[in-house]
């Protein structure tokens, strides 16, 4: 397969049953760095969404009965196609989402890694032979695909958040309908084109871009043919979608909001702590669900840490995604800017202090926000209770280990957490006490296809990635054979 250009891989219609399907209405996709309209995309309605579900249902029997190796081979071809077209996919993502092209290319590799991983997992699905309970009976357990699946994905990782759901579904033998985000649908449509080119059968993967999130979302959560639903997004929306799935008792995976603590203990290597905090905070301009949100620094090292952190933050480069050596680009839209400004001002009104940044970089564009460092934050402030989802580091202090852990756990969320320390007793102790689904110890990058991704408390249910991610798309069946005497 020859490599695509950005232009040849930019698709603008819905992808249903292996065909590009137009719609009467269309919506604009804009570049957040420039405000330029880059495409007009088919605006699918509930009728098209239901058509996609029927296509997935009709394709299910043929797909689920294929040998695991057949599905694995196609997934590996899809993986290779993504890597062969990494540059074009990265350019599409940078244009619609704003992240630097180099960072976007990294996401393409990351997203493709899930396809590669689950291609392998497709061939490593095992059941169990159970102990004998009666002399004339034998029992065993098999794994089967759950059936037709649906997914709603977010704008901040428009490639990887799709492959992380689609790859295990296809590996398990399921078919799927995906509603990509209105802000960034082009990445989803591009990888659907590649899936089609490598031979993934018609109807196995369907993409329905839309501005009617409520109507199409209702189809994807209530349709009786759909047996599994996956969502990544806010906790408030996730709760509503979970209610909609309840009547038909669908299997659910929900990766919801976070409020990740990043704890710096007094025995930490502060240079490592600064480096890892920059990784955990400024990737994608802070617009990640596992971004460090509450920076908790032990009093004894706070001043030294802030000095080092301020120096490091001052070196970050903010620019459009096609510039060289960019650390991050624009926020996604004006609402994101307004939220960052509101949380920052609220903290200042309550006594916090800006050490650097704290403003829109109008000379670059209205959606570019300066890397910002705030000290004097307290747990009661809004900036400590809400996801900032922007490039603002809000630092608060604590006196001892017990207080640090208490502040870290004082949230209804529990997606990711981070801490820096060198004492091994403390590392073991704190690792077990922090309430989160994923934890980085002296590490700011914690997501990998091999790792189990997901949260506790109101950060969601289920896991993505790892062998546990495949199980989310499988049913467990126990079979008992009698009359063997």
Task: Please explain how this structure is put together.
The structure is a single chain. The protein is 40% helix and 21% strand. With 485 residues, the protein is of the alpha/beta class. The chain folds into 2 domains: 6-256 and 459-478, Aldehyde Dehydrogenase, Chain A, domain 1 (3-Layer(aba) Sandwich); 260-448, Aldehyde Dehydrogenase, Chain A, domain 2. A 7-stranded mixed sheet has the order 14-15-16-13-12-18-19, sandwiched between helices. Helix 8 (213-222) crosses helix 9.
Present the secondary structure layout.
Blueprint: H1 6-9, E1 14-16, E2 19-21, E3 26-30, E4 37-42, H2 46-64, H3 68-84, H4 86-97, H5 101-122, E5 128-129, E6 138-145, E7 148-152, H6 160-172, E8 175-179, H7 186-198, E9 205-207, H8 213-222, E10 226-232, H9 235-246, E11 251-255, E12 260-264, H10 270-282, E13 292-298, H11 302-313, H12 334-349, E14 353-356, E15 372-375, H13 382-385, E16 392-398, H14 401-409, E17 413-414, E18 416-420, H15 424-433, E19 438-441, E20 456-457, E21 460-461, H16 466-471, E22 474-481
Parallel strand pairs: 7-8, 7-10, 8-9, 10-11, 12-13, 12-18, 13-16, 15-16, 18-19
Antiparallel strand pairs: 1-2, 3-4, 5-6, 6-22, 11-21, 14-15, 17-20
Key attributes of the depicted protein:
40% helix; 7-stranded mixed beta sheet; single chain; 6-stranded mixed beta sheet; alpha/beta; 2 domains; 485 residues
Please state the CA-atom Rg, rounded to the nearest Å. Answer: 23 Å
CATH T-level fold name of the largest domain:
Aldehyde Dehydrogenase, Chain A, domain 1
Largest sheet: 7 strands, mixed
**Mean of residue pLDDT?**
97
- Report strand order across the widest sheet: 14-15-16-13-12-18-19
Name the CATH superfamily assignment of the largest domain: Aldehyde Dehydrogenase, Chain A, domain 1
- Gap between N and C termini: 58 Å
**Oligomeric state of the chains present here:** single chain
The 3D shape can be described as globular
Q: What is the β-strand count?
A: 22
Stretches where pLDDT falls below 50 for ≥5 residues?
none
Strand content: 15-25%
Task: Examine the secondary-structure arrangement and name the CATH architecture of the largest domain.
Answer: 3-Layer(aba) Sandwich
Count of discrete structural domains: 2
CATH class of the largest domain: Alpha Beta
Secondary structure class reads alpha/beta
Number of H- or I-type helical stretches: 16
């Amino acid at each position: 397969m020859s490599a695509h250009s950005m232009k040849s891989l930019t698709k603008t219609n819905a992808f249903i049953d292996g065909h590009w399907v137009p719609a009467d209405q269309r919506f604009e996709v804009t570049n957040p760095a420039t405000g330029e309209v880059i495409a007009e995309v088919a605006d699918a309605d509930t009728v098209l969404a239901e058509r996609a579900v029927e296509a997935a249902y009709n394709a299910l029997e043929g797909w689920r009965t294929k040998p695991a190796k057949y599905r694995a081979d196609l997934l590996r071809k899809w993986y290779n196609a993504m890597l062969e077209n990494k540059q074009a996919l990265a350019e599409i993502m940078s244009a619609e989402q704003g992240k630097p092209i180099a960072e976007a290319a990294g996401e393409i590799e990351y997203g493709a890694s899930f396809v590669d991983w689950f291609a392998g997992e497709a061939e490593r699905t095992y059941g169990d032979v159970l102990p004998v309970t009666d002399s004339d009976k034998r029992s065993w357990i098999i794994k089967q695909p759950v059936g037709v699946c649906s997914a709603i994905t977010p704008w901040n990782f428009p490639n990887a958040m799709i492959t992380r759901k689609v790859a295990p579904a296809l590996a398990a033998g399921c078919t799927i309908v995906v509603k990509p985000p209105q802000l960034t649908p082009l990445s989803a449509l591009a990888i659907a084109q590649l899936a089609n080119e490598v031979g993934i059968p018609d109807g196995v993967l369907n993409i329905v871009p839309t501005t009617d999130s409520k109507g199409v979302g209702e189809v994807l959560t209530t349709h009786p043919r759909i047996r599994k639903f996956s969502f990544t997004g806010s906790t408030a929306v996730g709760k509503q979608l979970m209610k909609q799935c309840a009547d038909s008792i669908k299997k659910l995976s929900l990766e919801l909001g976070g409020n990740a603590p990043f704890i710096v203990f007094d025995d930490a290597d502060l240079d490592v702590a600064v480096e890892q905090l920059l990784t955990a905070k400024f990737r994608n301009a802070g617009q990640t669900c596992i971004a460090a949100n509450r920076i908790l620094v032990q009093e004894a090292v706070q001043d030294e840490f802030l000095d080092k952190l301020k120096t490091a933050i001052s070196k970050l480069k903010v620019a459009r995604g096609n510039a060289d050596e960019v650390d991050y680009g624009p926020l996604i839209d004006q609402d994101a800017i307004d939220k960052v400004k509101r949380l920052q001002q609220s903290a200042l009104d309550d006594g916090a202090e800006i050490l650097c940044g704290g403003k829109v970089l109008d000379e670059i564009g209205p959606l570019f926000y300066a890397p910002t460092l705030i000290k004097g934050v307290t747990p009661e402030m809004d900036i400590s209770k809400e996801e900032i989802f922007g490039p603002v580091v809000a630092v608060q202090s604590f006196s001892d280990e017990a207080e640090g852990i208490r502040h870290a756990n004082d949230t209804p969320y529990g997606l990711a957490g981070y801490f820096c320390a060198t004492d091994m007793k403390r590392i073991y102790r704190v690792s077990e006490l922090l309430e989160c689904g994923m934890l980085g110890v002296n590490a700011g990058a914690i997501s990998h296809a091999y790792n189990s991704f997901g949260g506790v408390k109101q950060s969601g249910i289920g896991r993505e990635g790892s062998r546990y991610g495949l199980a989310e798309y499988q049913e467990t069946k126990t079979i008992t054979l009698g009359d063997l005497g």
